[in-house]
Amino acid sequence: MEQRLLWDMAKKLCRRIVFAKAPLIGSLVVPGHFQLLPCKFPNAPTSTRFGSVPLVMEFWIDDLENPVVDLFPKDLQDFTASKANEFYKLQRLTRLISAISNHRIQASLPHSVDRGWQMPEESKPSAAGGTSKVVLFGSYEYPEMQQDLFIHAFSLPDAPTVRLVNHKDYYFMNPIENRESPITFSQEMFRMLHNYFNVGKRARAKLDVVARLICDGVDLHSSMNSLSFLAYVSSIETLASYHYRKAEGVEVECHGCHSVSDSPFSCEKCGKPIWGIKAKYKEFLKRHAGGHEESQALFSRIYNLRSKIVHEGSLLLGNENLFLSNNAKGEKERMTHLITQQASRFALANWLLMSAERDD
């Protein structure tokens, strides 16, 4: 009873403005954990000309989980630790939603020329004519913002649940987000989130890493194609390694070179037992993303492209030119890049639906 009372006292509600590329018409409410809502504050600035749409995230933190911030003065440590805890959790939640949906929800305004403040507010004539002014980008502020973000209880959503789409179609049927298409989620979204919150701490920490890698891939998708592609593949490898961490049926012969004497999997050419990361990657995707021969061939091509980038220094064409002319290879790589993004999301989503269980 005392422990429960202590936990309730340490629990703190938070409300923050987050950002997406598409508008949110409905609401995503996960009782006891968080809710994502349209931003309807009357004074919150918004415009169809801005690339980012403000949304509202409500969630809670536990001050008993505050990180150590001993680099700060002692009189600021409690406040700083609580704020750090709040930001870290907001990052985890927005990345999780982004990793199992087709929408990148960001805890802070993306680095872009989306929004800015003119400094000073009144322009002054310059020596060269015109006006002299400086614009500070990457800021979202308005006078009533602190008052709007004050929270003592979760809001009562006045919008219906966001539109849910058939799970099998969701990730590969028009997955590119834009301002004209409102946010949607898979019809299995609530079950995925329920399973995420119910796995053990070790599994949840690993899932947070996977979600981070997928989001890094999304954030770098247009600017650093090759690194983005590697982030997607790495997210699959990370989850595959965790999924097969017990390696049932595998007998390791040498822990130095990781050769195996027995394994449920064997080389297609020589028949020898194998159990490396590539074998885990292929078996994991076969189970969680598609077992058809066509899908398996695609996943093999993706891994071969990953190996060329990592081991041979190859780069996707998007890192070398701006696609100013028609290029069949470049178009094929763009499509492979996009499919890899969605395959990483689909694999994580299906793992949460099929394989998530408490590990401690």
Helical element count? 10
Mean pLDDT: 84
Amino-to-carboxy terminus distance = 23 Å
Q: Give start-end ranges of low-pLDDT stretches.
A: 1-7, 130-136
Give helix % range.
Answer: 40-55%
Number of domains: 2
Structural category is alpha+beta
> What is the oligomeric state here?
single chain
Rg for CA atoms: 23 Å
Largest sheet: 4 strands, antiparallel
Describe the structure.
By secondary structure, the protein is of the alpha+beta class. It has two domains: 2-115 and 139-198, no CATH class; 225-354, no CATH class. Helices cover 42% and strands 16% of the residues. The chain has ten helices and ten strands. The protein has helices spanning 2-10, 74-99, 145-149, 167-170, 189-198, 201-219, 225-243, 277-288, 293-312, 328-354, and strands spanning 11-20, 28-30, 34-38, 53-62, 116-125, 131-137, 164-165, 185-186, 251-254, 259-262. It has a four-stranded antiparallel sheet. A hairpin with a 5-residue loop joins strand 5 and strand 6 (131-137). Helix 6 packs antiparallel against helix 7 (225-243), helix 7 (225-243) crosses helix 8 (277-288) and helix 7 runs parallel beside helix 10. The protein is globular and about 70 Å long. The two termini are 23 Å apart. 27% of the residues are buried. The model is unreliable at 1-7 and 130-136 (pLDDT under 50).
